[in-house]
Amino acid sequence: MKKNIAILGSTGSIGTQALEVISSNPDLFEVEILTAQSNADLLIAQAVKYKPNTVVIGDESLYDKVNLALDPLDIKVYCGPKALASVVENENIHIVLTALVGYAGLIPTVNAIKAGKHIALANKETLVVAGEIITKLAIENKVDILPVDSEHSAIFQCLVGEYVNPIEKIILTASGGPFRGKTKDFLQTVKKEQALKHPNWDMGAKITIDSATLMNKGLEVIEAKWLFDVKPEQIDVVVHPQSIVHSLVQFEDGSIKAQLGLPDMKLPIQYALGFPKRIKSDFPRFDFINYPNLTFEKPDLDTFKNLSFAYEALRKGGNMACIINAANEIAVDAFLKDKISFLEISDLIAHCMVKSSFIKSPSLEDYIASDSETRAVALQKISTGFLT
Ligand code: NAD
Ligand code: MG
C-alpha cells in the first residue's frame, strides 16, 4: 500500500529533497498535502506537479494568488497558521513530514500526533521546546516519531534490532561549521555571508547559522535526549569535520555502532519515510579510498557557548530549553538582519535564560506563553543594546 505524505515546509531544503525522494518512488509514496510560508511560486509549481489534495500558504496575503493558480486543478487551498495546524488531521494522511523551521512546527506536530499520524521529524525545534509533551503524546497515540535529522537517523539506524540492549552512550558528531578552530577575536567581526557558508551541507538559513554557532548541536543534544530517552551525561559531542560518520551508539559491553555515508539528507529523509524498509537508491556511494583521513576532535565550548547552554537546559529541565529556543530564533533573525553581531547571539540567549520566567513543570499552554515572553524579552534587549 502507498504511504500518503503531508509535507509541512515543502519549499525548503528538506521539503524539496523529500519531494525528490517521492518522485523517485512513485509506487511507494503519494503527496497528500504541501505547505509553505511565503514562496507561493514554488508551492504552486509543486502542487501542479504532485497534485496534492490540499495546500496551505502561511502568508495570508498570498492566498488569492495560490487559490487562483490551483483552482482549475481541484486542489483545496487554505492559508494561515490555523489552517496549517488542522490540515494535518486529514484522514488520508499516513505520515506528516515536519520540514518547516522553528517553533511554528509545535502545534501542527501536536495535532498530527493526536490524530494518530506518524511523524517524520525534521523540525527539531518542536522536540527542543516541548520534548516531554511530544514524546508522551506519541506513546499515548501509538505513533512513531521517525528522525530525519542525519545524526538522529544514524542513531536510530544503529538501534534497530537492539531493543533488549540499553544504550550506554550516544556520540553525536558535529561538523564544527564554518568557524571551527576560530578564536573569539576572529568571531567578533564575522558577517552573515561568512556564517552562511557551511562546509558540508546546503541547508536553510536558520539551521546554517545554528551550525556556525554550534546551537544546532545543542538543539540536537536536546532532541537526542527526547528521542532516545537518555540522560544528558549519556550524550557526547565530537567534532568530525568530514561529516561522514553521522553519529554513534555505545552499548553496555563497550561496543560502538556507527552509521556512515556521504553528507546527503535524501538518505535520512528516505529512511524515515520508508521505515522499516530500506529503499533501493541511486544516491552516490561513499568510498573509503577517497577519505583516507576521518578525524575527530573536542568541541570548543569556551568559544561556542550555545552548546553548553543546551546541556544547562537539560540539567535545569522545565521550560529552559523552550527559552533557549525562542531566544535563539530571535537572535538568529536579528543577526541575519545585521541588528546584532555573531557573538551577541550567545549573549542574547544567556540574557533570556536569566530574565525569562522559569517554570518547573510546564503545560503546553505554559510553553506557548514562555515562547512569547522570551521573544519579547529578547526583542527588548536588542532594542536597548548589549552595553546596558
Ligand atoms: P528552510 O528554511 O530551507 O525551509 C523551511 C520551510 O518551512 C519552507 O518551506 C518555509 O516556507 C516553511 N516555513 C518557514 N517559516 C514558517 C512558518 N512560520 N510557518 C510555517 N512554515 C514555515 O529550512 P530547512 O533547512 O529545510 O529546515 C527545516 C527543518 O529541518 C528545521 O527545523 C531544521 O532544523 C531541520 N533540519 C534541516 C536539515 C537540512 O539539511 N536542511 C538537516 C537537519 C534538520
Ligand atoms: Mg543534524
From TrEMBL:
Mn(2+) binds at residues 149, 151, 220. The keyword Oxidoreductase applies. Its EC number is 1.1.1.267. 1-deoxy-D-xylulose 5-phosphate binds at residues 124, 150-151, 175, 198, 211, 216-217, 220. NADPH binds at residues 11-14, 39, 123, 125, 204. Residues 5-131 form the 1-deoxy-D-xylulose 5-phosphate reductoisomerase N-terminal domain. One of its GO terms (molecular function) is 1-deoxy-D-xylulose-5-phosphate reductoisomerase activity. It catalyses: 2-C-methyl-D-erythritol 4-phosphate + NADP(+) = 1-deoxy-D-xylulose 5-phosphate + NADPH + H(+). Residues 260-376 form the DXP reductoisomerase C-terminal domain. Pathway: Isoprenoid biosynthesis; isopentenyl diphosphate biosynthesis via DXP pathway; isopentenyl diphosphate from 1-deoxy-D-xylulose 5-phosphate: step 1/6. Coiled coil: none annotated. Its cofactor is Mg(2+); Mn(2+). Residues 145-228 form the 1-deoxy-D-xylulose 5-phosphate reductoisomerase C-terminal domain. InterPro entries: DXP_reductoisomerase, DXP_reductoisomerase_C, DXP_reductoisomerase_N, DXPR_C, DXPR_C_sf, NAD(P)-bd_dom_sf. Keywords: Isoprene biosynthesis, Magnesium, Manganese, Metal-binding, NADP, Oxidoreductase. It is an enzyme of class 1 (oxidoreductase). Belongs to the DXR family. Catalyzes the NADPH-dependent rearrangement and reduction of 1-deoxy-D-xylulose-5-phosphate (DXP) to 2-C-methyl-D-erythritol 4-phosphate (MEP). This is 1-deoxy-D-xylulose 5-phosphate reductoisomerase. The lineage of its organism: Bacteria, Pseudomonadati, Bacteroidota, Cytophagia, Cytophagales.
